[in-house]
Design brief:
By secondary structure, the protein is an alpha+beta fold. It has a single domain (6-130), classed as Transcriptional regulator MraZ domain (Chemotaxis protein chec). It has 6 helices and 7 strands; from the N terminus they run βαββααββαββαα. A hairpin with a 2-residue loop joins β6 and β7. The termini are far apart.
Length: 142
């Protein structure tokens, strides 16, 4: 990431994002990790509808709606295949020059590289020490 907050999207993602979504993306915060979620616009619009339809009578649900929808920012790939990550999102995810973009099927995650490496190591250590596998994952055949 450069000093202005522009990040080059790797070609393997960029080509698909341009051809399928015209480079139109949305970034928001993760509420469980110190990273950003980056969605193709159509994926985000589906997610936003689901979040917005949740009951506003529950204080915690309202707070999550405020955080996820309220922090969502439009991103557009420029002619050089870069996106500008807004300062407030960079601050939240503690993003600096070295960042890691992680593909997650329908979205990308943007991490500070040091944070990603630290979390990744902790997750691998947890797996090695006997991670409890959730029921919904146990039904999958990998």
């Amino acid at each position: 990431m450069d000093t202005k907050g522009r990040m080059a999207i790797p070609a393997r993602y960029r080509d698909a994002l341009m051809s399928e979504f015209s480079g139109s993306l949305v970034a928001t915060i993760s509420i469980t990790d110190t990273c950003l979620f980056i969605y193709p616009r159509p994926e985000w619009e589906e997610m936003e509808v689901k979040i917005a339809r949740m009951s506003t009578f529950n204080k915690d649900t309202r707070r999550l709606q405020h955080l996820l929808i309220g922090n969502a920012r439009d991103l557009d790939l420029d002619g050089s295949g870069r996106v500008l990550i807004p300062q407030e999102l960079r601050d939240y995810a503690k993003l600096d020059k070295k960042v890691t973009l992680v593909g997650q099927s329908h979205r990308l995650e943007l991490w500070d590289t040091e944070s990603w490496n630290s979390n990744r190591k902790a997750w691998l250590d947890e797996v090695a020490s006997g991670l409890e596998i959730p029921e919904d994952i146990q039904s999958l055949s990998l």
